[in-house]
Amino acid sequence: MDFILDHLVIGSAKGAWERRPAADAMLCVAEEIDLPPGVAVAHKVPGRDMQPIPTVPLAETIDWIDRHVADRRILVICNAGVGR
To answer: Is residue 52 exposed (0-12), middle (13-18) or buried (19+ Cβ within 10 Å)?
Structure first.
């Protein structure tokens, strides 16, 4: 897990399941990963690892982070935690 900002963490899905770092919001950017149950604020933007996110889903992702980052700690997950 890497803290990009105090309220923005990026990591792998496996790491998120094993030790979710006090995040109360989760953003999944991998199409083959399901969001875990019990996350109050969650969003999924399907994408493929090692492929760029198309413009419209990228804008949606940025807007979602912008709406929540001031009030919540967001964990962004993908398969490996490095491609995003």
So the answer is: exposed
Integer Cα distance of 56 and 12 in angstroms? 23
Reported residue count of the chain is 84
Report CA-CA distances (Å) from 25 to 50, 52, 81, 83: 24, 23, 16, 20
Q: Which two tokens stand for residue 45?
A: 């933007």
Domain covering 2-78, topology? Protein-Tyrosine Phosphatase; Chain A (3.90.190)
Structure tokens at 57: 């889903």
DSSP conformational letter for 54: P
**27-58 tens-digit pLDDT:** 988 888 888 777 778 888 877 777 777 888 88
